[in-house]
Amino acid sequence: MIVYHLCEAKWALDNLENGRIKVSQIEDLNDPFELSGPYLKTKKKRNQFRSWRTTMAKEFGMLCFSRDWSNPVLWSHYANKHTGIAIGFEIPPNLLMDVIYTATRPPPESIQRAYGTQAEGEEYVKTLLLMKYNDWSYEDEVRVFKDINEPDSSTGIHFVDFGDNLKVKEVIAGPLCTTKETTIRSVLSKYPQEINVMKARLAFKSFRAVKNEKGFNA
Predict the structure, then answer these.
(1) How many other C-beta atoms are found inside a 10 Å radius of the C-beta of residue 167?
(2) Strand 24-25 with 60-66, pairing
(3) What percent of the chain has pLDDT over 90?
(4) 114 Cβ contact partners less than 8 Å away, ≥ 6 residues apart
(5) pLDDT tens digits, residue range 34-56?
(6) pTM
(7) Angle at the Cα of 216 from the Cα atoms of 168 and 184, rounded to 5 degrees
(8) Which 3 state secondary structure label does DSSP give 93?
(9) CB pairs under 8 A, 24+ apart, for 35-41?
C-alpha cells in the first residue's frame, strides 16, 4: 500500500538524501489530545492516565502518513502552504494502523466492553493510541508505531531508515513548490527502484490538488 508523508521541501530532500524519516514523538504532535482521548470522570483516573501517557511517550513514537495526497488542507498544514513535497511510501498493510476518528470522548469502560475486560489488552491500548477527534478526519491518517531508541548523534532526532518495509515509490512536488525536477531526480539517482516524480497543481473543477500533466515547466 502506498501512503504519503508531506513536509517542507528542504526536509523532504533531506529525508531522501539520507534515506530516513523522522519519528514523531507524542509530546511534539500538534494535537494535544493525543493519547488523551477517553473521558475520565475523576482526578485520580486522570492522574493515572497522564502517568501512563508519559510512559508511552518515552517508549514509543510514530510515523504518520495519509492515504491521499490530494487534500489541499494537508498541503497547507504540513507542506508549508503548498510549497513542500509529498513522499509516497510503499508499506506492508499489516504494519499500518488506521486512526480512529470519533465525535465524543468515550469512557474507558465503553472501550473495554468493545474489546474485552482486560484494561491493558492489546485492542484497548491500540484504540487509545489511535483515537482522534472527528475534525482531524480530513487527514485520512494511518500510523506505524516505533520503539524509541538512541537519537541521531548530530541532530538529537529519532529516525527510521528506509528499507523493504518503508520503500520510496513516489515524490510529488506541491502546487507552489519551486524545487526543480532535476534537483529531485539527482537526489533519487542512488535508489535502485523506479520512483515516480510528478508536479502537483490546483484542480480546475474541484478543491483538490492533482497531477500537473504538463510537468514542472508549466
Answers:
(1) 16
(2) antiparallel
(3) 62
(4) 123, 127
(5) 888 888 888 888 888 888 888 88
(6) 0.90
(7) 35
(8) helix
(9) 35/128, 35/129, 37/102, 37/105, 37/106, 37/128, 37/131, 37/132, 38/105, 38/106, 38/107, 38/108, 38/111, 38/128, 38/131, 39/104, 39/105, 39/106, 39/107, 40/107, 40/108, 41/107
Cell of 185: 531526480
Give one DSSP letter per residue of 188-217, joined into a string. Answer: HTT-SS--EEEEEEE-SSSSSEEE-TTGGG
The CB density around residue 65, as the number of other CB atoms within 10 Å, is 25
Which ranges in 6-165 belong to alpha helices (H)?
A: 9-18, 43-59, 72-78, 108-115, 122-130
User: Nearest CA to 5 among 69, 60, 62, 61?
Assistant: 69
Residues 6+ apart with CB under 8 A from 87: 4, 5, 6, 7, 12, 15, 16, 21, 168, 170, 171, 172
27: pLDDT strictly greater than 70: yes
Task: List, as one string, the DSSP characters of 103-119.
Answer: SS---HHHHHHHH-S-T
Phi (first) and psi of residue 216, to 5 degrees: -75, -20
| Contacting residues for 201 by C-beta, under 8 A, at least 6 apart | 175, 209, 210, 211, 212, 218
| Cell matching residue 151 | 537519537
Euclidean distance between CA atoms 13 and 184, whole angstroms: 7
C-alpha cell at 186: 539527482
Cell numbers 502517568 correspond to 51
Q: Residue 124 carries which DSSP code?
A: H
